[in-house]
Amino acid sequence: MWRTAATMVALLSMLLTATATATAVEKKQQYKNAYATMMYMGTPRDYEFYVATRVMMRSLLRLHVKADLLVIASIDVPLRWVRTMEEEDGLKVVRVENVYNPYRANNPNDRFKLTMNKLYAWNLVDYERVVMLDADNLFLQNADELFQCGQFCAVFINPCIFHTGLFVLQPSKEIFKDLLHEIEIERPNSDGADQGFLGSYFSNLLDMPMFHPPPNNTKLNGQYRLPLGYQMDASYFYLKLRWNVPCGPNSVVTFPGAVWMKPWYWWSWPVLPLGFSWHEQRRNTLGYGAEIPMVILEAVLYISIIAITRLARPNFSKLCYRRIDKSAMVYHTGLKFLAMASIIAAYVVPFFIIPHTIHPVVGWSLYLLGSFSLCTIAINAFLLPTLAVVTPCLGIFGVLLVMACPWYKDGVVRALAVFAYAFCASPLLWVSFTKVLGTLQVSLEREAFLPSRLNDSPPPPGFNKIY
User: Membrane-crossing residues (predicted)?
Assistant: First the structure.
């Protein structure tokens, strides 16, 4: 009983908040239709999705769409982000209370915990039609004809399940209240997120006719399936390395799948070629002013590391190689482990500290510079061969060139080329690894010789160089 009362209070609060925000939208409304997206907090990637939202909305502005651009933002979205979107991007921001998701136990991924906020799109009753979008959409051309669709329209990327990354709806307070009620009674939901819930609510969409825009710009009634060209799965592109979707206009690309391979991450290209297209849209709209200071700071830091480690080479080596009278085996093993760990860290650490949403060319350049600079610490501290230590760095640069090559016939040929490159490069990596271990072993066995190399005092008389 107490739970039911609490749920009713929360429901009433959401309805009041939605009514207030809808009134706020009415004061700013310019068009009778809107492109809308949502934003909420509480995931490790909040900033990245904030940037993605701004880029998508600015790209719509560049396409001269005849609709309002609106963000349904939860009340915990930082005010500075809200002001930036309103003042710099010209967006309309609607602040809402988070819709409680009772299905979270079925999908513990934080990425989907508040996706039910998407239901607020049905409460935007001042608009005739709303195109609801996820932030991982890339618009290739104006798609305003979508506003001619009926009360609910979506694309079936999966043969049996429509995708909620883009759908058209007619706002309705009655449907909005009914959707909230269905959440309260926990309507069956296959994935614990908005897609499973809406797929259950509009379960007959697969049997509906295909949408074709009427030539006289009139709005249709009812439910329709949208052609695949309005929500092209990026994975289709990677098979042919070109678009081959004959049904409907090739207007919108979506990037479903692993969140760490979304197009705004610098490492997604050239692994996923379309990531470059997304960054070209960002370069032409939002720019990279927020990340550039950090990039410059990191570049200066890496160059300084290269210079300092070279100048301090003798002192570094003295710390690593010194005569140990007891537990020589433990010392040797520990030194080898430390040397290999420092090399591995040199290739891992830069990956995590580079700004995630920087342009891929800048990101990969900074990564290679950072890896090389950190490798110089191991090279100068343990007196290792430079070429053997930086071989993985050269290998990464090579595979980037192989993947970025623009002359592949299709994705299969590209994949085979990457596999052939990896097959040919693997022996070189193994040779480099064994050479590093061999150099460490020789240096450890000839510690008596090292002091003279390091401008240190000569070994005591009678000391055996063979150790």
Answer: 292-312, 333-355, 361-382, 389-409, 415-433
